[in-house]
């Protein structure tokens, strides 16, 4: 769906996601979801927290986090999610990615946990370099691990700087813990919100390019239930 503004994008994406969450609750008494972060999710999350959802029946998982920064750091995605989501709706359970501990042990912990709970709805975005979560190109399409340690490429790090999360490029971490491509693709449904002109080239590659690890988000074209929400700026290069 293409909307005129990012505010409309956020509302449409949140409404669709909320409907899928309510259906999961009706069908099995609890919904398991994945929540993304970053500037692209501001409008969607602002609307999702207003939705008519029984959050006491929602279990959520965190998509990714930088390695080596505390939960109090201004760029921490744990901080972002506490302020914009968890503290507002109080889901029955929220499973954060802790980037401030041994990353490989944290990947193992989260992988064991998420294996118990099939995901009903994944809320994601697309990076300026076409990354999905922090799976920068060339992304690993093959690993069966649910969470992995990844190296962040320069384009990804410049995006984080450009969005205002860090004062200098040197301050942007070089590694993160990310949910893997295969784990994201296991989700029953995917809601992908991608506003802004700076994402237009990545959107074009994702939608019209080859399905390739060089374009990580392109893998979503192989999923049976993806809803992609764009504004007129992010959709401006589509043919």
Total number of helices? 7
Strand composition percent: 15-25%
Main beta sheet: strand number and arrangement? 7 strands, parallel
- Arithmetic mean pLDDT: 96
SSE string, helix = H, strand = E?
Answer: EHEHEEHEHEEHEHEHE
**N-to-C terminal Cα separation, in Å?**
15 Å
Gross CATH architecture: 3-Layer(aba) Sandwich
Shape: globular
Widest sheet, order of strands: 1-10-9-6-2-3-5
Which class of secondary structure composition applies to the elements? alpha/beta
Count of structural domains: 1
User: Low-confidence segments, ≥5 residues, pLDDT <50?
Assistant: none
Q: What's the level 1 CATH class?
A: Alpha Beta
Q: State Rg.
A: 16 Å
Helix content: 25-40%
Number of strands: 10
